[in-house]
Design brief:
The protein is α/β, with parallel strands linked by helices and about 475 residues long. About 20% of the residues lie in helices and about 30% in strands. It contains 9 helices and 39 strands. The chain has a 16-stranded parallel sheet that branches. Strands 14-17-20-23-26-28-30-33-36 form a 9-stranded parallel sheet, with no helix packed on it. The longest helix is centred in the middle third of the chain and has 21 residues. Bound molecules: uridine-diphosphate-N-acetylglucosamine (UD1) and calcium ion (CA). Uridine-diphosphate-N-acetylglucosamine (UD1) binds next to strand 1, helix 3 and strand 10.
Length: about 475
């Protein structure tokens, strides 16, 4: 049985999520639940994937753009058996057909592989993945014969009191022999408490036809956890966060408090990097080796070079080179390229700017829409004035430019290499290489003024 196809059921509404968004698109660690299932299915070596969509079909299809899956539409949600019927057009004549759910984001490729092997070795036409749980409420119960062989699955709503007491439950994941599935799927009816076509009735058919039905119990119950509401979504996220953190720790990343960090599935982190509590690493982020990510640092869709340290800062859609120092309290808004050995210190904000190697902005500055060369010094309180209320303009500064504290660089303007801006200047025109630009009113000193105005205070007067 070489050919393997997976049918992922994702047509249900997910009413309990109380959401505009289709349930399977709700994210666990930055990735839609159904995409987690798809990646694990692929990881188990199954490439033909059919996703059954219905509620919010367009949105789900859109959310899975680029996933390279086939879609089957189930117009009315008449049950899990009915959902599989809609996918049959994409199911081959022979081989194994996995039926899975789009709302079980914690299933792993390893378990799917083991499940598949078990099925192949059993010689049965259907194998169901089960779990032993403390509270089986709501799930289909696994009914076995006296020898432990699988007999049937009974839904909560159809179960007798005795059956309800069974704590082995149906995960909703199955492998079928394709030929058996083709032969029998249309025989399903909806004579049950919910008036639905139950996929689970195929187990009974396999047993009655002597085709064999097997049940295999999953080792880790978390893997089959279905998400129906936001409480379960948070539970699944917690498990996923732990898994992701452990994967990085095993690969050489130090995570001081794994329970407190949020790292999305897509994030890459080099060895010897240290992640402090409260860090949030999201999207397409790549962190180099030996990086220090301080407490409460947020990094989204960004690349951080080796040996850089980032303290309590926010970085979005930007690139930072190696051995640079960012923060505390720096804010890199989208579109920056910060070089190697740079410093972007406390309360410095960058947006859509480049900062060459060795350049420094130590404190309290705003750099927006600027292309800045290497070894530049930006003093405290410097502002790149990029906006006139209607349009934004860019500024430029060559290598080694020195911009004194509290200066305003009014775009569009260019400071050539080695230009020197005196503290407190407002620069509105280009400055030549090596020139000093100073824009400052002449100071005035009025002697004896404080006394004459009656403003002189005695020592300690304000402390009485
Ligand atoms: C089903 C199983 C139950 C099992 C449980 C595991 C049946 C009859 N029962 O229960 O034994 O313990 O899953 O979670 O199969 N779906 C569709 N179209 C439909 C109905 C459902 O695509 O018409 C999809 C849902 O989006 C969901 C999955 O199938 O992803 C399971 O549906 P759900 O309604 O949660 O299954 P239950 O009937 O609760
Ligand atoms: Ca369910």
């Amino acid at each position: 049985m070489n050919q393997k196809t997976a049918v992922i059921l994702a047509a249900g509404q997910g009413t309990r999520m109380k959401s505009e968004k289709p349930k399977v698109l709700h994210e666990v660690c930055g990735k839609p639940m159904v995409s987690h299932v798809i990646s694990q299915v692929r990881g188990a070596g199954i490439d033909d994937i059919v996703v059954v969509i219905g509620h919010g079909a367009d949105r789900v299809q859109d959310g899975l753009k680029g996933e390279n899956v086939t879609f089957a539409v189930q117009k009315e949600q008449l049950g899990t058996g009915h959902a599989v019927m809609q996918a049959m057009g994409a199911v081959p004549e022979n081989g194994g057909v996995f039926v899975l759910c789009g709302d079980t984001p914690l299933i792993t490729a390893e378990s799917l592989r083991a499940f598949s092997e078990y099925h192949e070795n059993s010689g049965c036409d259907v194998t169901v993945l089960t779990a032993k749980v403390e509270d089986p409420t709501g799930y289909g119960r696994i009914i076995r014969n006296a020898d432990g062989g699988l007999l049937r699955i009974v839904e909560q709503k159809d179960a007798s009191e005795e059956e309800k007491a069974v704590n082995e439950i149906n995960s909703g994941m199955y492998v079928f022999d394709a030929a058996f599935l083709r032969e029998n799927i249309d025989k399903l009816d909806c004579n049950n408490a919910q008036k639905e076509y139950y996929i689970t009735d195929l187990i009974t058919m396999a047993v009655e036809q002597g085709r064999g039905a097997a049940a295999v119990t999953v080792a880790d119950v978390d893997e089959i956890m279905g998400v129906n509401d936001r409480v379960q979504l948070a539970r699944a996220t917690k498990v996923m966060r732990k898994r992701i953190a452990e994967k990085h720790m095993r690969a050489g990343v130090t995570i001081i408090d794994p329970d407190s960090v949020y790292i999305e599935d897509s994030v890459e982190i080099g060895p010897d990097t240290e992640v402090w509590p409260g860090a949030e690493l999201k999207g397409n982020t790549k962190i180099g080796r030996g990086v220090l990510l301080g407490r409460d640092t947020i990094i989204e869709n960004s690349i951080i070079g080796d040996g850089t340290d980032i303290l309590k800062s926010v970085i979005k859609d930007s690139e930072v080179g190696s051995r640079s120092h960012i923060g505390p309290f720096a804010y890199l808004r989208p579109g920056n390229k910060i070089g190697d050995q740079c410093k972007v210190g406390d309360f410095v904000e960058f947006k859509n700017s480049t900062f060459g190697n060795g350049s420094k902005a130590g404190h309290l500055a705003y750099v927006g829409d600027a292309d800045l060369g290497e070894d530049i010094n930006i003093g405290c309180g410097v502002i790149f004035v990029n906006y006139d209320g209607k349009k934004k303009y860019r500024s430029k500064a060559g290598d080694r430019a020195f911009i004194g504290s509290n200066s305003n660089i009014v775009a569009p303007v260019e400071l050539e290499e080695d230009a020197y801006i005196a503290a407190g200047s407002t620069v509105t025109k280009n400055v030549k290489s090596g020139a000093l630009f100073v824009e400052r009113a002449k100071g005035l000193e009025v002697e004896g003024w404080v006394e004459r105005k009656g403003l002189k205070r005695e020592p300690g007067e304000d402390r009485k």
